[in-house]
Design a protein that fits this description.
The protein contains 10 helices and 7 strands. It has helices at 20-25, 46-52, 66-79, 99-107, 123-126, 131-148, 164-169, 181-191, 214-235, 262-273; strands at 7-13, 34-39, 56-59, 84-88, 113-117, 159-163, 196-200. Helix 6 runs parallel beside helix 9 (214-235) and helix 8 (181-191) runs parallel beside helix 9. The protein has one domain (7-273): Spore Coat Polysaccharide Biosynthesis Protein SpsA, Chain A. The chain has a 7-stranded mixed sheet, sandwiched between helices. It is α/β, with parallel strands linked by helices. It is 40% helix and 14% strand.
Length: 274
């Protein structure tokens, strides 16, 4: 808790058994009140490790996608009373030790959202980010800043902190269930004029860290371009995509809409063991 505000860390997980313990070991428990893991139908022992660590674990009955995983995470965090929610990938690519700083920036009242940037400083290159990904990151970010009239160092980090107000107001159910969800959420935050801050973050690239392949990266890149163009067309009044409409039915409900039952966990564990 920071300044009386409850802090939750959410972990959207898929096959994170090898890195989950290391990630959780560095989460600052002196300020984090709740850790929520959503397993997107992993084929490894992610659920078993999460259970050993005592994490609040949500189990998807099928692989729903990275964006759908985050929707479940945020919905659960709201239901459990979080005031500040930090989304951290459980693959140990980002430093969990920055949770305190990111949550503190929101608790200060200066920001509604905070992103951990790999681009500020030399975190990306020193951490081993593939050169083609670094180049694509810079090009896509430059395009989005130009089209959306923002000044972010990157739009593609998987380490973000949000205030409860942001999560309750954004029409997140209108976002994709795939990887472009992250980018669409930022566009929504910009559309609603939420205050976005950034912090420099080191990163690590290694075999166990999750990463999408070149083909999926290209699909993601096209989705990013479309998101930025739709944003500008909507600003000009030439288009009205559902992504920016504030309908109540497109907002997350502060409830858990996926299986959160010990029985479901037991069944998955038994199938894994078998």
């Amino acid at each position: 808790m920071i300044d009386g505000r409850k802090v939750a860390v959410v972990l959207p997980a898929y096959n994170a058994a090898k890195t989950l313990r290391q990630t959780c070991a560095e989460i600052p428990r002196d300020v984090v009140d709740d850790i929520i893991l959503t397993d997107d139908c992993s084929v490894d022992d992610t659920i078993g490790v999460a259970r050993e660590l005592g994490l609040h674990t949500i189990v998807h009955d099928r692989n729903r996608g990275y964006g759908a995983n985050q929707k479940s995470c945020y919905s659960a965090a709201l239901a459990r009373g979080a005031d500040i929610v930090v989304m951290l990938h459980p693959d140990y690519q980002y430093s969990p030790r920055l949770v305190t700083a990111m949550a503190g920036m929101i608790a200060s009242g200066h920001y509604d959202a905070v992103f951990a940037s790999r681009i500020l400083g030399r975190g990306a290159i020193d951490g081993g980010m593939p050169r083609y990904k670094y180049v694509f990151n810079r090009l896509l970010t430059a395009f989005q800043n130009l089209v959306m009239r923002q000044k972010l160092s990157e739009y593609h980090t998987g380490y973000r902190a949000w205030s409860r107000d942001v999560l309750e107001k954004l029409p997140l159910l209108a976002c994709s269930d795939d990887f472009v969800f992250d980018n669409q959420m930022i566009a929504q935050a910009a559309w609603h004029d939420f205050r976005i801050g950034e912090i420099s973050c080191p990163t690590k690239y290694f075999p166990e860290a999750s990463s999408i392949n070149f083909r999926r990266s290209c699909i993601y890149g096209l989705g990013v371009l479309r998101t930025a163009i739709d944003y500008r067309l909507c600003r000009w009044g030439l288009k009205a995509p559902r992504l920016y409409r504030p309908e109540t039915e497109s907002r997350l409900a502060p409830a858990i809409a996926v299986s959160d039952l010990p029985a479901a966990m037991e069944a998955r564990l038994q199938r894994t063991a078998a």
